[in-house]
Amino acid sequence: MNIIRTLFIFLLLAMTSACSSYNTYSSGQMTTEPVSYLYFTGNITNAEVSIDGAPAFLVTKAGPKQQYKVTPGKHTIIVTKRGQVVVQRDVLLGDDHEKEINIPQ
User: Fold this and answer.
1) C-alpha to C-alpha distance for 105 and 102, rounded to whole angstroms
2) Nearest to residue 70, comparing CAs of 44, 97, 101, 32?
């Protein structure tokens, strides 16, 4: 009887210790990096964009499904064509927000 009781206690301790350590590695929350999006419409031919004074890049894709990632927050967007400023806009973007920048003809 003593052996059965000892075996039962051992099994009970083994089961409770296994259950308590289960899934402890995933404590906390999973988060993703905050990101916002810009997309360009209108005449993108030869349009170069500078965001917050960073080196300009050539716009190669247009439309709501062709988005460029930016960090959330306030940004100054300057669009130039052949050295002339055609759009200068300050935008405030929240996490997972998107903003259209229309480039005139």
Assistant:
1) 10
2) 97
- Residue 51 tokens read as 């965001």
Q: How many helices (H) and strands (E) does the chain have?
A: 1, 7
**pTM of the entire predicted model:** 0.68
Environment class of 7 (CB within 10 Å of its CB; exposed 0-12, middle 13-18, buried 19+): exposed
The first and second tokens of residue 76, run together, are 């100054």
Three-state secondary structure call for residue 56? coil
Quick: pLDDT tens for 50-77: 999 999 999 999 999 999 999 999 999 9
Q: How far apart are CA 81 and CA 5, in angstroms?
A: 86
